[in-house]
Amino acid sequence: MAMTSKAIEGTQASVAHVHEPRRGGCVVVLGTGGTISGKAGSARDNIGYSAGLVRVADLIDGVPGMDTLLAAGLRLEAEQIAQVDSKDMSHAVWRRVAERAAFHLARDEVDGIVVTHGTDTLEETAYLLQRVLAPNKPLVLTAAMRPASSSEADGPHNLRHAIELASLSGARGVLAVVAGTVWSGLEVRKVHPYRTDAFGAGDAGAIGYIEEGRLRRLRDWPAGEPLGLAVLAAEVWPEVQIVVSHGGADGRLVDLLLDAGVQGIVVACTGNGTIHDDLRSSLMRASHHGVAVLRALRHGAGVILPGTAEALPSAGGLTPAQARVELLLRLLADRSRA
User: Fold this and answer.
1) Where on this chain does substrate bind (predicted)?
2) 110 and 166 belong to one structural domain
3) % of residues, the chain, pLDDT over 90
4) Which residue segment(s) compose the domain that 275 sits in?
């Protein structure tokens, strides 16, 4: 099946643009599993469920108002990429999602892509897809905080919003929509373990809001030059790990990683990118041995401000998980060029 919409762009309060879906185009929905496709033994159980049990085609059938969307000329296609709990997301699934998304985005008749995903690693997948593909069409990730079996399931409305967003004329880049809020794939991060509005974007804020089938956009779409799919072609990806600076930290874990042949380390830092002295010494030693090291903030907002004497480079405002993806992509790009 496939979907579309007609775009009417206007100005509201001189800062917001209102977009409506097109009519007669196509949206492809790629399923990867997650809570949105999870099931529990009781409709009252929102925690003790198994993720990745409901097929993406069945999720589409449960979207409220789908008959209306189809009657308006929307065409939807569904493709199952994986069925995993996103805590178990793998490099292989990332590569497969990127490949299939790129394939469908290249089709003239496709207006946009939706990826159903788990919430736990959504920020990593979104960041990777934007850096690799930076698409001129919308590539929208959506998820749920309640399983499909729940009497309070939020997945059906989130999926509808994602389909509406993917069909907008002029929309572009990797986006995420959860609980009616639209985030950039470069900035989105999970900020709560239970609430249905579980996402934020640090200091950046939302791109906009889905309201009655329309997008009220507050700022521009994600941008950037794509690294290209070739960067993911390696069969064996570099080993990149995350360590945390904290009270009582030392460098033993870094030394073990160095002995194990790690190629990149992200350190989740305190303060303005500060690192416990004992840990920092081991990280500097790893850097001198050719291991790529990147500093990230262990809290969810702000950026590492320049101007300190710190010799290790920073990831700016990226979360440690996003910084790991960034470092991984840099190493893959270096390998590809070599």
Assistant:
1) 86, 119-120
2) yes
3) 84
4) 237-337
Place of tokens 């569904």: 78
Q: Tell me: is residue 125 an annotated ligand-binding position.
A: no
Q: What percent of the chain shows pLDDT beyond 70?
A: 93
Please indicate whether residue 119 is annotated as part of the active site. yes
Task: Tabulate helix, strand, coil % of the chain (nearest 5).
Answer: 30, 25, 45
The reply to whether 116 belongs to the active site is no
Residues β-bridged to residue 154: none
**For the chain, what is the mean pLDDT?**
92
Nearest to 207 by CA among 180, 234, 229: 180
Average pLDDT over residues 78-99: 97
| 120 annotated as belonging to a binding site for a ligand | yes
- Decide if 171 is inside a domain: yes
Strand runs (DSSP E) across the chain, as ranges?
Answer: 10-12, 16-19, 26-33, 75-84, 110-116, 138-142, 173-178, 181-184, 189-190, 199-200, 208-211, 214-217, 240-244, 264-269, 292-297
What is the model's pTM? 0.92
Catalytic residue, candidates 4, 32, 116, 119: 119
Considering the candidates 4, 35, 142, 196, report the single residue annotated as catalytic.
35
Residue in the block written with tokens 């198994």: 50
Q: Using alpha carbons only, what angle is made at residue 139 by residues 137 and 145, rounded to the nearest 5 degrees?
A: 155
User: Is 11 annotated as belonging to a binding site?
Assistant: no
Domain co-membership, 252 together with 200: no
DSSP code, position 21: B
Q: Is 80 helix (H, G, I), strand (E, B) or coil?
A: strand
